[in-house]
Design goal:
Elements (H helix, E strand, L loop, with lengths): L24 H16 L4 E3 L9 E4 L12 E11 L3 E8 L2 E11 L1 E7 L5 E7 H14 L10 H22 L1
Antiparallel strand pairs: 1-2, 2-3, 3-6, 4-5, 6-7
Length: 174
């Protein structure tokens, strides 16, 4: 089931999420909903707080080549356990900040540990776009948005645009 995506500014997007203590069928269904919502948006990553759920859960799939099979990842309680000194700059966007993009510098390679949908601990080294995406999504779990890496003027400009977008959406629904 597709879920509505929260638009910045929303106080839930600035909250630190609680660890998931135990996996349940309800949490697995939430992960499925998040994947459906992410693919439909379309996006390459989605964190639970973006749909108003304050649990440490992210989903992502950075496969862009239509000839490659999709690689949906579901990560409960993801954590970065190591990061490279070498950095990359990617133009990032966010489903909670539609049509706004900015260059963000992050570690080029990260080692991440998480619990998969079957309750097994997983770990993997991510590079390039995958590394950027997983860091962006884990930031969401810590109440941080990609615009928090920008200077105050650019951040305020984007926030004002989002406030205007939310007002226009509210008028359209009324």
């Amino acid at each position: 089931m597709k879920r509505p995506i929260l638009i910045h500014p929303d106080p839930r997007l600035k909250k630190v999420c609680a660890p998931v203590p135990d996996l349940s069928d309800q949490l697995r269904a939430l992960a499925d909903d998040m994947l459906e919502t992410m693919y439909d948006a379309p996006g390459i990553g989605l964190a639970a707080p973006q749909i108003g759920v304050l649990d440490r859960l992210i989903v992502m799939d950075c496969v862009k080549d239509e000839n490659e099979p999709p690689r949906p990842l579901v990560m409960f309680n993801p954590e970065i356990v190591a990061a490279s000194d070498e950095t990359n700059v990617y133009e990032e966007g966010c489903l909670s900040i539609p049509e706004q993009y900015a260059e963000v510098k992050r570690p080029r390679v990260v080692d991440v540990r998480w619990i998969d949908r079957d309750g097994n601990e997983q770990s993997e080294t991510f590079d390039g776009l995958w590394a950027t995406c997983v860091q962006h999504e884990i930031d969401h779990l810590n109440g941080k948005l990609f615009i928090d890496y920008l200077g105050p003027m650019k951040r305020q400009m984007i926030t004002r645009k989002m406030q205007k977008l939310k007002r226009e959406q509210a008028k359209a629904r009324a």
